[in-house]
Request: fold
Amino acid sequence: MFIIGVSFVAIACLIISNIYAQEQTIPKWIKGVAKFWVEGEVNDQEFIQALQWMIDNGILRVSPQTELEKQLEQKMLEQMVKKQNETPPLIGIGFECLAPWDREEYDFTVEVMNHDTKSHSPIIEIQTTDEYDRAIFTSLIEVGKLEPKEIKTVTGSVKVSTLSFFCNAIVKEVN
Reply:
């Protein structure tokens, strides 16, 4: 359903952009219909019905796909299928860093999950990075033994400087 919904939206966007290329604007009421769908106020089926109604009533005119549009659609579908079939990493992480206002360290919380079917003891690296995503300071955390499908939460801190823009967490090593 996700692939169909996303590819339909991509195709609809291409069609709408072709239709209104001469005008250079998309009417506000069409944007409103799309906004309701994006915000979840209408479901996929209702959104598709609204687009179909606009096509049936001549509001949207569907022109045949150009060769370039066909190639683009095919490439998008291939990428979405590839993404869905990718194997997740053995260790997944989610993190949050709290920015200091009057301190010299970021406080962080990291959730670590073992996606594998065997135990691992991952090491997580917390970094403060500059505006180009280069590490300035790092802090290593040994998570300890993580059983299959187990989730652990670890906390700590990492130094900051006037060059620190971001905080990042990466899986450094999986034992």
Summary: The chain has two domains: 2-85, 91-174. The longest helix spans residues 67-85.
